[in-house]
Amino acid sequence: MGYHQELTAYAKGFYVISHERSGTHFLMNCIQLNSSIDFKCLSVGEWFGPFDQPQTQFEHIYKRFSELNPQQHYILKTHCDRDLYNAKYPKGKIVYIFRDYRDVLVSYYYFLRDEYIASGRRRNQKISSLWFSRLEEFIRRPLPDFLQLNYSLYGDFSFPIERWLNHVVQWIDNPPEHMQIVTYNQLYYHPEETTQKLLKFLELPSKAVFTRPTFENSLSVMPRKGIVGDWKNHFSTKDAVFLDTAVSEYLPLIDRFPWNLEGRSSGEGNTLERSGRLNVYRHPAALRDC
């Protein structure tokens, strides 16, 4: 299996791709609840090691696609970076969602602390135990090998904000023709309009009446809070400056999309946008001195 194969060789469906904690399930629920197609949601999953056996890094990907039913419609969720997708995934339509990096990192901190690391260690005892006790430590300490390689082909980053930048910049810089980009804010503030545009891109029939996902009607996992701007209740001014400095070089690219306010890009209304190439991601030098 590799870059030259099409998803249609395995099943009907499309990908929802994101960095973790970016509104992935909210997006999947919007599509499931408002399309008349009966979708099955599956996660392609991540690599839990053993990390001293790199030849096993892609076995879970091959296994997942070998198990698909050609007659079933799927929403395939993955947090893979673009390098990994290009190298190892069958090609299909993609909806890519990204969210304010500050809200992502707060949610990611709680996710790792409360469940994910413990779950990973049940699969592989060599996975690092928690390496932080507070949020300000989490954003400033290098990630263990596990979180560098679980969804990445190369893992060429160290800090959590670098991981986010590596993922988002790779995907939104010069996106492929078969991909549509949406921000969490667009979906949060304008769910019906945004969902209808995505259904049109995916060539899916829509239901007559729009249903907004709630905890009660959710067909897949709902977010921990999902509140826009909740990071203000967690980060100090010093923390916020640290993160803003790290992303500053890439804001001309990121700001092409309505990620930071009420889901509307300047001068364009609530659009689902495409981007031209700006920069290839590289490590923010500022982090090396913090």
Automatic annotation (TrEMBL):
<protein>
    <recommendedName>
        <fullName>Sulfotransferase domain-containing protein</fullName>
    </recommendedName>
</protein>
<dbReference type="InterPro" id="IPR027417">
    <property type="entry name" value="P-loop_NTPase"/>
</dbReference>
<keyword id="KW-0808">Transferase</keyword>
<dbReference type="Pfam" id="PF00685">
    <property type="entry name" value="Sulfotransfer_1"/>
</dbReference>
<dbReference type="InterPro" id="IPR000863">
    <property type="entry name" value="Sulfotransferase_dom"/>
</dbReference>
<dbReference type="GO" id="GO:0008146">
    <property type="term" value="F:sulfotransferase activity"/>
</dbReference>
<comment type="similarity">
    <text>Belongs to the sulfotransferase 1 family.</text>
</comment>
<feature type="domain" description="Sulfotransferase">
    <location>
        <begin position="19"/>
        <end position="247"/>
    </location>
</feature>
